[in-house]
Amino acid sequence: MVSMRKNFVTIGIILIIIGVVIFASSMYIATSSLHYNEINLAPGQQYSLHVTNTGIFMYKSNISYPVKLLQDNVTLTSSSYKSGYYSYVVEPSNAHAIINIYNNYTVPLEIVYANIPISSSVVISGLLVIIAIVLVIAGIVIAIYGAIKK
Q1: Domain count, the chain
Q2: At what angle do helices 120-148 and 2-32 cross, to 10 degrees?
Q3: If 0-12 CB within 10 Å is exposed, 13-18 middle and 19+ buried, where does residue 27 land?
Q4: Beta-strand relationship, 68-72 and 74-82
Q5: Where are the membrane-spanning stretches (predicted)?
Q6: What range does the domain containing 139 cover?
Q7: What does the pLDDT read at residue 118?
Q8: 5 lies in the same domain as 62
């Protein structure tokens, strides 16, 4: 009976370890396709961001108003604002699509932005996160069951 309990605990721990490894690898996959940066723009200055895939563009700045985004071969749709972050769906029309972030204010801007492409790697990393969570929960349940089983 003791070895049976020990087997359940061992299997639970192995599932937890596998879940953590899958979760870490999914985070690596997700962040490898993420493009983020922090920029400082003086009044009248602009920054060009090249966009190749449909995705989500998000930014936060040091002012409470949206910055001016100039579009070149790209469409920005479905804008939203939540918790200080402005976000847009980005749809490039060709390989030369550019979002120009323009400071049309009289104060310097500090902007942190992220361009998140909607690609197969992002979808795969999302699925891996779900699998990892299921494995960790199953591992915890099995390990606890093995530890308390008489």
Answers
A1: 2
A2: 160
A3: middle
A4: unpaired
A5: 7-30, 122-148
A6: 1-33+119-150
A7: 77
A8: no
For 50-90, how does the pLDDT look when each residue is reduced to its tens digit (9 = 90+)? 888 888 889 998 988 888 888 888 888 878 888 888 989 88
**43 and 100 belong to one structural domain:** yes
- The pTM is what? 0.64
What element of type H or E holds 82? strand 74-82
Neighbours of 100 (CB within 10 A): 14
- Of the candidates 93, 123, 99, the residue with the CA atom closest to the CA atom of residue 111: 99
pLDDT recorded at residue 28? 84
Based on the fold, state whether residues 134 and 104 are members of the same structural domain: no
- Pick from 28, 29, 53: nearest CA to 116: 53
The amino acid that residue 22 corresponds to is I
Average pLDDT of span 4-24: 90
Q: Tell me: do 40 and 11 sit in the same domain.
A: no
**Same-domain check for residues 71 and 114:** yes
Question: Please, how many CA atoms are within 13 Å of residue 97, restricted to the half-sphere of its CB?
Answer: 16
| Tokens 């961001």 belong to residue | 49
> Within this chain, do residues 25 and 99 fall inside the same structural domain, yes or no?
no
Q: How far apart are CA 30 and CA 22, in angstroms?
A: 12
> Which position has the token pair 């591992």?
139
